[in-house]
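Data deposition worksheet. Section B asks for the primary sequence of the deposited chain exactly as it was used as input, without tags or linkers unless they were present during the calculation. Section C holds the resulting structure in token form. Section D is free text for depositor observations; keep each observation to a single sentence. Incomplete worksheets are returned to the depositor.
Section A, Depositor: J.P.
Section B:
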Amino acid sequence: MSSEELIEAAETAIGAGQSDDYSVAPTTHAASLEAKAPTLCKILGGSRLRTSASEYERKELEAGKAQSVFKNVAGKANWAVFVTSCLSAALLVAVTLNNKSSIWFVTLGCFGIVSGALGTMWLFEIRQGNLFQTWMNRRARAEAERLNYFALATQANEDAKGSEIPLPLLQLEYFRRYQLEVQRRYYRQRSQDHKQVADRMLTLSAYAAGLGALAIGFAGILGGVLGPK
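Section C:
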């Protein structure tokens, strides 16, 4: 076969990238390649590759759990801080009302104390538990193990007798699909996600700045018409 035919045959044997490649499960790759790329399948089914694949999946699972814990606690802390700020603003309004509304002042104050305490508790958990650092460390270990796995998969040698496709070409295509393309897809998607979040935060900041300007303007007008109190 010509070089172009060999490359096309290798791409067909390994397969095109799929959306579920985003989450790599190397322990399943050997079985999926047994019919089309038996030589590569034999390498992936070796003890070293099986051990590395299992270690990667275990560390990937640990990193995912650490990420979920951090996001869960951080989300609750952010909401607690937001609610506390809103209640504090409401207290400034309640304190200007007549004495009959003191029940509202007490109620808002109690809720503000509770939400503030919860926010402090969750922020303390994030800092003292090193939740973010734990997530980053476990993610780094998972990524290092994945690099080790693909290094083993692409450096291994095996007798390719009876195979029309050279083993190095199969290894290259395997690396392309499950490492290079996955990383490119991940960073492309994450860059879009970050841009959307940045645009949304910019919009919210603009609204907040506008409301702040309106509040200052109305406060000045009302202070001059109704008096400083």
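Section D:
Helices lie at 3-14, 29-32, 38-44, 47-94, 102-128, 131-155, 167-226.
The radius of gyration is 29 Å.
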